[in-house]
């Protein structure tokens, strides 16, 4: 008998589906409340580009005298250096006003949209810098905000 196939996923395109919230306060990252999410700011329409926001694990070699093969075990978990590039507002009323340098809060990624029962990732962060892009070319003004991920993110948390 063959292995059971994985369920057919409903594939999607991130723009117009995924949501990104800046939430100033979450009591329990493993189960944010609907009121905590609603108190946040939906940044989705201001996002021009994303970098990082992936969690990975080191691998530790565990050789032994009984084999020439070197096995591995999972090691420390970390998150990539992460940033988001936002569109700037001429008057400066943009992501900078919501997330000033040194602000602490939570970046909440709702990859399948803000729909109860779906999954989200919750990253505790501190805003570390505001890098303004300046150009004489044909591109919109942007600001790249870098984030220090200050603790282990809660992944695949059910949206309330």
What is the share of helical residues?
under 10%
How far apart the termini lie comes to 39 Å
CATH class: Mainly Beta
Main sheet: strands, sense, barrel: 8 strands, antiparallel
Task: Enter the CATH topology name.
Answer: Pnp Oxidase, Chain A
The Rg value, from CA coordinates, equals 19 Å
Based on helices, strands and strand pairing, what is the structural class?
A: mainly beta
Describe the structure.
This protein is mainly beta. The protein has one domain: Pnp Oxidase, Chain A (Roll). The protein is 6% helix and 44% strand. The protein has 2 helices and 10 strands. The chain has helices spanning 34-38, 95-98; strands at 19-23, 41-42, 47-51, 55-62, 71-79, 82-87, 104-110, 119-133, 142-149, 154-158. Strands 1, 2, 3, 6, 7, 8, 9 and 10 form an 8-stranded antiparallel beta sheet that branches. A hairpin with an 8-residue loop joins strand 8 and strand 9. It is globular, with a radius of gyration of 19 Å. It starts with 18 loop residues before the first strand and ends with a strand. The mean pLDDT is 96.
């Amino acid at each position: 008998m063959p292995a059971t196939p994985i369920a057919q996923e409903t594939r999607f395109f991130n723009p117009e589906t995924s949501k990104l919230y800046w939430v100033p306060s979450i009591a329990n990252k493993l189960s944010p409340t609907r009121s905590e999410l609603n108190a946040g700011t939906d940044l989705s329409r201001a996002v021009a580009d994303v970098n990082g926001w992936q969690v990975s694990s080191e691998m530790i070699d565990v050789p032994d005298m009984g084999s020439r093969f070197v096995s591995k075990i999972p090691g420390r978990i970390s998150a990539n250096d992460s940033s988001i590039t936002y569109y700037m507002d001429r008057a400066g009323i943009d992501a900078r006003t919501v997330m000033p340098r040194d602000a602490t809060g939570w970046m909440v990624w709702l990859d399948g949209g803000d729909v109860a029962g779906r999954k989200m990732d919750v990253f505790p962060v501190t805003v570390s810098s505001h890098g303004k892009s300046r150009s004489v070319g044909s591109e919109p003004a942007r600001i790249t905000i870098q984030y220090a991920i200050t603790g282990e993110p809660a992944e695949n948390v059910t949206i309330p």
